[in-house]
Write a structure and sequence with these properties.
With 375 residues, the chain is an alpha+beta fold. 24% of the residues lie in helices and 35% in strands. The longest helix is centred in the middle third of the chain and has 18 residues. The model has no long low-confidence stretch (mean pLDDT 90). The structure holds adenosine-5'-triphosphate.
């Protein structure tokens, strides 16, 4: 059982910013279950690497506790924590061969020659490195170097694998294939893995669960699709999803037919959307509440003709359209707001044209404007 539990974990860098202390990680609680693939994701500087480095023992803990496998490890040296970390920079020894790089940690731990050979050969086979064992790192591609770095972690057979942005130095195509390889590896090794990235696609595709961080705090922990479909707050809503969720300021207002969202903007000609189902239920005591409405670009569509029957329509001017092949991103401006529509296929559109856009009322998200929390 290799469960990792962070309890009220805090990191303060003393005197780091203009002489004042800086709270990089603010009393976070996180439980990574045995065999789970947990992704820590968030913008640059949110504290994800600091959190990972504290788990590894490379960074001193200011307050709180870390337990691995039910054992408190706050004061356990990194080498005794039974973890292996893969870094963005690969951190390979340039003068050693691939075999020696992978064997190094085992030699230090005084494993027998036979055991070292067995483990290195096995890892090389898993990672497709069998024919490269005698090469030096400089004779490898970026992807192959990263595989050696992963191999060095595998041979240790640790309880927990920690990955710190391991794919950031690879080109886009190699990133996609390494992403799949690491996911397969997780399935095969059945190990607990904690993976730090700022790339939301990596988070969505690799994680059993995702922990979204911002400004030293945890914003939401959940399975990828729940994070996407039910973001807990405005931060998660706008961070996860590409292009980002469209946001409109407004208020919940009660009309004869039931609650509606009414957009408020300086042009005075905002749109309105009926709030049915669950959302209608949730806002029933919130007449006049200041809210933000969120709608993902794929849940909007441009109308073929003005007369098409629909309940929620926004009129806007096309600023730009970006054909992506399988879809076209259309950037629109209402005069008060900019937003994006994702149209299927290749759509040819002229800039400056006024169009009507329908918003699917069943797909809207509402957030409290004061707190940013989802309603
Ligand atoms: P990135 O993706 O850019 O690495 P991150 O989310 O991993 O970002 P951290 O590296 O954990 O962020 O850093 C969190 C904050 O702590 C940042 O504002 C950073 O400037 C600060 N920080 C990190 N290391 C130190 C240090 N040794 N001394 C002072 N401040 C630090």
């Amino acid at each position: 059982m290799a469960q990792v539990v962070l309890n009220q974990l805090e990191k303060i860098y003393a005197g780091s910013r203009k002489g004042s202390d800086f709270r990089a990680v603010k009393k976070i609680d996180l439980t990574v279950e045995d065999k789970e693939f947990m992704v820590l994701v968030g913008p640059s500087g949110c504290g994800k690497s600091t959190t990972l480095r504290m788990i590894a023992g490379l960074e001193e803990i200011t307050d709180g506790t870390i337990s691995i496998d039910d054992q408190l490890v706050n004061d356990v040296a990194p080498k005794d924590r039974d973890i292996a970390m893969v870094f963005q920079s690969y951190a390979l020894y340039p003068h050693m061969t691939v075999f020696e790089n992978m064997a190094f940690g085992l030699k230090l731990r005084k494993y027998s020659k036979e055991e070292i050979e067995r483990r290195v050969n096995e890892a090389a086979q898993v990672l497709g490195l069998e024919t490269m064992l005698q090469r030096k790192p400089k004779a490898l591609s970026g992807g192959q170097r990263q595989r050696v770095a992963v191999g060095r972690a595998i041979v240790r057979q640790p309880k927990v694998f920690l990955f710190d942005e391991p794919l950031s130095n690879l080109d886009a195509k190699m990133r996609v294939s390494m992403r799949a390889e690491i996911s397969k590896l997780h399935e095969r090794l059945q190990a607990t893995m904690i993976y730090v990235t700022h790339d939301q696609v990596e988070a969505m595709t690799m994680g059993d669960r995702i922990c979204v961080m911002n400004d030293g705090e945890i914003m939401q922990i959940d399975e990828p699709l729940n994070i996407y479909n039910r973001p807990a707050n405005l931060f998660v809503a706008s961070f996860i999803g590409s292009p980002a969720m469209n946001l409109f300021k407004g208020a919940t207002v009660f009309k004869e037919g039931g609650p509606v969202f009414e957009e408020t903007n300086e042009t005075g000609n905002g749109f309105s959307i009926p709030l049915d189902g669950d959302l209608g239920e949730k806002v029933k005591n919130l007449d006049g509440k200041a809210v933000v409405l969120g709608i993902r670009p794929e849940h909007t569509r441009m109308l073929e003709s003005e007369s098409e029957p629909t309940v929620a329509v926004v009129t806007a001017k096309i600023e730009l359209s970006e054909p992506m092949g399988s879809e076209t991103l259309v950037y629109l401006d209402t005069g008060a707001n900019s937003f994006i529509v994702k149209e299927r296929g290749h759509v040819k559109l002229s800039n400056d044209l006024y169009v009507s856009v329908a918003i699917d009322p069943e797909k809207v998200h509402l957030f409290d404007r004061a707190t940013g929390e989802a309603i």
